[in-house]
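We emphasize that the prediction below concerns an isolated chain of 461 residues; any contacts that depend on oligomerization or on bound cofactors are therefore not represented. The input was used exactly as deposited, without trimming of termini.
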Amino acid sequence: MFRSLRFRLPALFVVGIVVSGLVAALIALRLFQGYVLDLSKKELRREAIGLTELYQEQANKRNGAAPGFAAARLEKATGDRLYFIGISPFPGSTGGLRPLPPDTIDWQSNKRINFEFTPPGASKTYVAVANPLRLSGRGGKGAVQFGSLVVAKPKTELNHRLITLLERLAAASIGGLLVAGLLAWYLSRRITRPVLALSDAADEISRGHYEVALPETRGSGEIGHLANRFGEMASRLKEAEEQERNFLMSVSHELRTPLTAIRGHVEALREGVADDPELREASLDVIALEGGRLDRLVGDILDLAKLEANRFTVLREEVDMGRLCDQAYAAFGEEARRRGIDYDKRFDAAPTIVSDGDRVLQIISNLLSNAFRWTPDGGRVELGLAAENGCVSVAVDDSGPGISPGQRERIFRPFWSGDHTGTGLGLAIARELAVALGGRIELESQLGKGSRFELVLPRRD
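Result of the prediction step, given as a token string:
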């Protein structure tokens, strides 16, 4: 469970929220602590200035007598504590203010001072502001500083505000974690459901079951793209398995037919059935013909394997395309006559190219063989040759059933056959050879009207 994607995604999501929340809380506490401290110092500074003016006014009016205001009441009104540092101008009294040791601060500096201290006999630390006290006027000439009025508040009060903030942050964090956890659980379900479905589908495909149900995904995100490609992969695997099965059946049939004929004639020759010289010659011709058929089949398979493994050697020689096309054309003349096919050629040029002549002949022969295979008796097949723009094109037109748009790419795949007969190697080898020679094969077709295969080759490399 803990290793599954369904658990890891929400766990990582929540951990990320917790870490980011802790970092944000630490930063917020640090900033709030500084803000509260500055705010408290400003409040203490205002109180110190106001109380200092009041204290000085009372002292100047009483001419040496202790001020009449009550420090305890001021402390109660402000919530702060009032202290005095210095030499009191009132004999035997500090005007109701709590005294502090003179060495607590440098009170004679005639400056307003922010500081922290611990009062004698106390355990709390106080934040304080000391404001100079002057006699005979408020800051005018001749005024003499005799001490400092200290306004202080416990530092723990500041911590109380931080505790309140922490409590609120904790409550907000808990609520945020709940929301984040629910959101993470929902998102992980949305993400992992199709992934798990794809995983189950992959298990089924590994068992050879290609008809699998794929998850429905909305939109065009990564999961949708993965599901679409997975579906295409499953279709291609199914098609590849069918092609392999068809290939094995076709190859076994193609091998068995000539082998059966060869075996029969060999047995007849061995048992002396064919004693007549003409019969013996006919049997030997059949054996040679069927042996050549076997040789071509094995050669096609080897050629395809070499092309796909990029281990194919291409020769470079001058090739008379007119003569080569005449040779390919003549090879199918007898079949055209026997089947009543209107077989014609149209050569608009007789160019010479630099290429592998045997392989070019093999491509044209494969295209003609495909055309004759699909053209019905009494149909039409035409071989054309043209040259323009530095390229040579050899076109094979037929009046066969045509090729649907969905099959135009499949027919060039190895072992694929439209009627599940034959090896399905001819067009595949033709296209691979054309690419190896630096050219291409173009296809134009209309259902019910026939097809046109055109080999396009450069005159030179």
